[in-house]
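Bug: token stream looks shifted between consecutive jobs. Job 1:
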Amino acid sequence: MARQAARVRRGRNEVPEPFRAWVGVEEHRKAADYALERLRFRRVALVAEAGLLLLWTRGGGLDALDRAWRASGLGPRAAGVAFLLSAALLAGLLALPLAAWRAFGLERRFGFNRTTPALFLADAARRAGLSLALLLPLAWGALALMEEGGRLWWLAAWAGWLAVALLLLWAGPALIAPLFNRFAPLPEGPLRERLLRLAERCGFHARGVFVMDGSRRSAHSNAYFTGFGKSRRIVLYDTLVERLGPEETEAVLAHELGHARLRHLPRRLAPAALLALGTIALLAWVRHEPWLFAGLGLSSPSSHGALLLFLWAGPVLLWAFRPLGTRLARRHEIEADDFAAGLLGPAPLARALLEIYRHNASTLTPDPLYSAFHEAHPPPPVRVARLLARDPGRIPGEVV
């Protein structure tokens, strides 16, 4: 983070090429300040999260919660599930102050937050209810496998993880996402006809292109592809549709169609499944080790304790693999850029990216090492320069 902060500060007062025709100096400074504030927030969040984790573990929080449920009179498995659910709920509640600071402090200061306190709390309640509804059967099934599944229970647990991941990937777009946002078909008009012609040209189902009311919560613009099979959909934020011209919106759609045609979601699922298999196998190996529980503050070994500790420690264990995931995601973004440029030419997508970066106050001078580790998209200068190199005669700021 120190490298990123230093790089952003050094470039704060000079807009790099090829952005000078598109981004003003004051907008560039705002983007730099926004990036620096986000880094400061992340530092504070890391310290706060580490402190809470110490309180949960070495501070005795998890042990007290475990003792309380053991004394509740519930059966061992029911008490274990209750322990997992209550730990997840309490962790979510403790994370709310940081989330509120981000929304009503950081994001509002830079003009991006549009959520209200009532909507913020409603979203938190919906997330909590959804998480508990999903966690209840999953926790019960995982504990049943750990306790009764024999020596190879972890293979069955991995198969269950894969099945749930596929189910959520299928059901998420149509069943879960609408709990938080409204998704409407493209409104009638020339833009709709233009985009649907492009979707049909690429073999994508016309009903799978939606506009999401992202403006209810944020002024940021974005688009994404998700789902598989009949649940596949491309989602354009309403803020993006409002800001971009027809050619630029079509280019963004072409980029997302590239993700669909090139099967990027299945290609990302495969390495994730391998990592999950290794993680679950490691859990099976250490779940009976006394040091696992003693080192993290639980006085009584248990399957539910091992499962929770491993779920919380998992992101730390997978931290070393993050650059590999980032590299794969970046390669997919470049492939989708090339797909869009091949369909429509590079200039429309270049202009769309320039406008999105400008509107979202994305830093144009990231540190390469920090970016390679933390950011799933290539840096703005890299993406735009690649596109412009394919059509050097077109001026970046030229609008057609």
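Job 2, same session, no restart:
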Amino acid sequence: MLNYRNINIIFILLAAIVAALAITNRLSFYWFVPLLLLYTGIVFYGSYYVGSNFFMKVLCSGATERRQIAISFDDGPATAYTAEILALLKEAQVPAVFFCIGKNIAGHEELLQQMDAEGHIVGNHSFSHHFWFDLFSTRKMLADLQLMNATAAAAIGKTPVLFRPPYGVTTPNMARVMKQTNLKAVGWSIRSLDTVIKDDEQLLTKISSQLQPGAIVLLHDTSAATVKMLPRLIEKARNEGYEFVRIDKLLNLQPYA
């Protein structure tokens, strides 16, 4: 299994072999350069591909053959679009999970209360969503996630368990934080790129072409294109026989502590 522990063991052994051969003049010390580059490339892949499970377990899809899918929204609550998305979901009777940023909650507590009242889940997407969040120390990262949970709990009276790593990046420090908390990391199997794709038709085509049983769709309640596209995605998925289920049902997890 390709994970951080196993890769370190393999590369320590390879480095020892290269060192032994170099000392006996059977190999150049320059062989350490491609070895280091290969190691760096693997670690980079493990960090930035959320489904790699390189540092820690991240659930990215449901283990089911039934045509069930879950939709998720990151980065809210947002003044511009979260309320519109909630209205669309209510009309279509589709449940979702909103991975909220703690610093965005102040002044928008009623949106979290609406999410909860209408049967959606509030998840943890960090408090700061800092650009360098993945480089935080274990202690700083833990404090950030605990602050987000406390902020959410103050708004809805429930403490989130589901956590989505900011930017989808995982690290050894994050793995340590997961072990110190009740948080369960959740990724996605379909990345919509709705923060980049501004054409709602293109967005619909991209997502619908990747639908499969157990899929988790990553969307953002900060995107105008998502608001325009969402009703058609729901209709198209249902016409293809898909059922929208809450992510906790799809993954068989408790959403709150």
